[in-house]
Every structure is written in structure tokens, then in C-alpha cells.
Amino acid sequence: MEIIPAIDLIGGQCVRLTEGDFAQQTTYHSDPVEVAKQFEGLGLRRLHLVDLDGARAKEPVNLPVLARIARETKLHIDYGGGLQSSEAVRQAFDAGAQQITAGSIAVREPKTVQKWLKEYGADRIIIGADFKDNRIAINAWAEQSDLTLESFLSSFAQMGAKTFICTDVSKDGKLQGSSLEVYKELLKKFPDLQFIASGGVTTIEEVRQLRQAGLYGAIIGKAIYEGTISLEELVKEVR
Predict the structure, then answer these.
(1) Could you give all domains of the chain from N- to C-terminal order, each with its CATH number?
(2) pLDDT of 110 above 90
(3) Where in the sequence numbering do the catalytic residues fall?
(4) Which residue pairs from 152-157 have beta carbons closer than 8 angstroms and sit at least 24 positions apart in sequence?
(5) 11 DSSP 8-state letter
(6) Angle formed by the axes of helices 63-72 and 86-94, to 10°?
């Protein structure tokens, strides 16, 4: 299982939100590049980079930070936030992202994302399936759509998507555990898809449970910054 540390960006700084709420923001580090280098120095290979300014602006804002991390580390970066056009996706790849995450645009304009899947391939386009109470959440999680999680996954699987970041919005940033049972159900229903767990991963034991359940990856953010999972423990899991 891929262990993927997360860096969320506001104003070029490394922050975390609770339940995606900009009013519940904690700043952890003024230089995300240093944080990324620390992850790489410990042997972690992946990075989930979220441009929260971009999500609000509906276009990428922190591309210079992405470019610096790509230039100064060898981390495999997936980048999301504000990718609402083909031009924005191209800019993200040009700045050094290996993959991008298509979030609310996948709900609003599935045909656009289908075009990206054809153009770049399913290996480079991750679909962000943010959910709350089994409904897909959109617009920086401010509202729920009418789509169920399963119908959303099914429709994109038919378009050729294979990797999905499934974030339980109600758990994100709360350090109260992830939606392990939801992921187990999804793996049963969609055995051919790759699911990355996100939201609420709190302990190293949970990381092991996600691995045993068959998750493709786990994104870990606040647990690292708050110290409920130590980087040393994570590195042992990676090895």
C-alpha cells in the first residue's frame, strides 16, 4: 500500500483544515518545500499536494510551490485544487505534477474529465470522490450533490478511470479514525479499482488495517502534523 503524506497550501504555507472548513485552519509550517524534503529524507516516495487557494479561486494559485517541490525533491506528486480547465491541468503537469486529482469538476463536468482520461491516460488522472453520508460533496465540500458515492464511482469506472481518492468529509482533520468499513464495501463492489483512503487516518494501527483491507493507498495529513502517527512509524510501514 502506498503511504502518501499530504501538504495543503494556503498562502504558500503548509496548513490543515477541519472538515474542509476554511474557518478551522491550522498553519503548521511556513515552507512546504522543507516539509516535502523532510518526507523524502525519511524514505517516503509520494506526496498529495492540495492547492486550497486554488480550490477557492477555481484556478491553480500555488503552482510555483508545486514547481519548487518538483525541482528540489524526487517525490511523486499528485496535485489538486482549482483544476477546472484543460489549460490548468496542462499547467500542473508542466510544473512537475506526475498526477492530478480531478475533484468537483468530475461531478459538474464529467465529459471534461473523460477527455483528460483519454488525453493523459488513467495513470495520470486520479478522480477525487469526496463524500459525506454516502453522497458526493462538491465546492470545497460546502455542499452535497445528488450523486451517491457508488453511482459516481461506477460512472467513472466506465469511462476508464481506475484510481480514486475517497475522502470522508465528515472525518477529515478530526483525528477520529477513517471510514474503514466504507472502504471494505467499496473494495467488494469494485474489486478492479484502486482506492486511496483519505480523511481521519489517526494511528499506525489504522494504517495497517487499511493495508490489510486491500487499499491501494492512504493519505495521511493531520496525524503527521499533530504527532498521533510518528514519521518513524510510517517509514517502517513503507519498508
Answers:
(1) 2-237 (3.20.20.70)
(2) yes
(3) 8, 130
(4) 152/106, 152/107, 153/129, 153/186, 153/190, 153/193, 154/190, 155/110, 156/106, 156/110, 156/113, 156/127, 157/190, 157/192, 157/193
(5) T
(6) 30
The CA-atom distances, in angstroms, between 202 and each of 46, 90, 176 are 19, 34, 6
- Going by DSSP bridges, is the β-strand pair 125-132/163-168 parallel, antiparallel, or unpaired? parallel
pLDDT of 33 higher than 90: yes
pLDDT band at 236 (very low <50, low <70, confident <90, very high): confident
Q: State which H helix or E strand residue 127 sits in.
A: strand 125-132
H-type helices in 42-179, by residue range?
Answer: 52-57, 63-72, 86-94, 104-108, 110-120, 149-158
Confidence at 109, pLDDT banded by 50, 70, 90: very high
Summarised one tens digit per residue, pLDDT across range 114-162 is 999 999 999 999 999 999 888 898 754 555 667 899 999 999 999 999 9
- Per-residue pLDDT, 12: 87
Helix (H, G, I), strand (E, B) or coil at 123: coil
Question: Residue 133 forms beta bridges with which residues?
Answer: none
Per-residue model confidence (pLDDT) at position 57: 93
Measured distance CA(213)–CA(211) in Å, rounded: 5
Cα 23 from Cα 89, distance rounded (Å): 28
- Closest C-alpha to 32, from 71, 69, 61: 69
Coil/strand/helix, residue 74: coil
